[in-house]
Amino acid sequence: MAKIIQLIWIELMWSMKIDSIDSFDVTRNQKFFFDSNVWLYLLYPQDNQSANRWITKYSKFNDLVLRRDSLILTNLIQMSELINVIVQKEYKRYCQSIKPNYINFKEYRDSEEGLNTLGKAKTFTAQIMKQTTLQTGLFNSEDMKAIVADCDKADFNDIYFARFCQKQSCIMVTHDYDFRALGTLDVQLLTANGAYLH
User: Fold this and answer.
1) pLDDT digits (tens, 9 = 90+) for 112-158
2) Structural domain contains residue 7
3) Nearest to 171 by CA among 55, 15, 24
4) 31: phi then psi, degrees, rounded to nearest 5
5) Cβ proximity of 45 and 186 under 8 Å
6) Structurally, how many domains does the chain consist of?
7) Which residues of 5-28 are buried (b: 16+ CB within 10 A; e: fewer)?
8) Which of 22, 57, 93, 155 is spaced 20 to 30 A from 103 at the CA atom?
9) What is the per-residue pLDDT across 18-59, written as a single tens digit (0 to 9) for each?
10) Is residue 4 situated within a structural domain?
11) What is the DSSP pairing of strand 31-34 with strand 133-134?
């Protein structure tokens, strides 16, 4: 039974086109959406040395996209996600630095340290906005209902981003293996994540 499920899973995966960023040929007319994890590799300081490999790969690809004058799209959901991720990461770092004097998230957010973190998040998202084209108002009420109806299949933002790429006919660049759960969607993925490529 497990083998049958695995074969069905593989079959589903093949309906989503997946390519390596190392061998993908970027052309001027293409549009891309960089998933939030890719922006974090590109612009946010990483805590571990193993991230350097991915930073190098995604930076090289980003440079290629910019040199070819291809579009990189973003949306407000992504800006919200990135701000929240940065604030949560900085909050965890802060809590580790002041052990055992733990403070809750609301106290942190209202503190001088928390306000500095929001400043960092604003600077981070401003850097992204310089490289991207912001797209809004793409989904009608039926589209949004379909996105909400799929919330049991994957993370809501992942579903939104995949549908965004479908709507915009753009290619998603991601390192997040969770998109495998959306394998039946007609979205092209580019990645340096070897789990997708074996």
Assistant:
1) 999 999 999 999 999 999 999 999 888 889 988 988 988 888 889 99
2) no
3) 24
4) -120, 145
5) no
6) 1
7) eeeeeeeeeeebebeebeebebee
8) 155
9) 899 999 999 988 999 999 999 999 999 887 888 999 999 999
10) no
11) unpaired
Residue 141 maps to a domain: yes
- Rounded Cα distance, 92 and 7, in Å: 40
- Report yes or no on 5 lying in a domain: no
Q: What does the CA dihedral 78, 84, 86, 88 come to, rounded to 10 degrees?
A: -150
Instruction: Give the SS3 label for residue 53.
Output: helix
Contact indicator for 132, 72 with CB cutoff of 8 Å: yes
Predicted TM-score (pTM) of this structure: 0.87
Q: Are 36 and 76 in contact, with CB atoms under 8 Å apart?
A: no
Cα 42 to the chain's mean position, in Å?
11
CA-to-CA distance for 134 and 117, rounded, in angstroms? 23
- CATH code for the domain in which residue 29 is found: 3.40.50.1010
Domain that holds residue 59: 17-197
The three-state (H, E, C) secondary structure of 95-163, written as one string? HHHCCCCCCCHHHHHHCHHHHHHHHHHHHHHHHHHHHCEECCCCCCHHHHHHHHHCCCCCCHHHHHHHH
Query: Residue 44: helix, strand or coil by DSSP?
Result: coil
Please list the residues that pair with 73 across neighbouring strands.
Answer: 33, 133
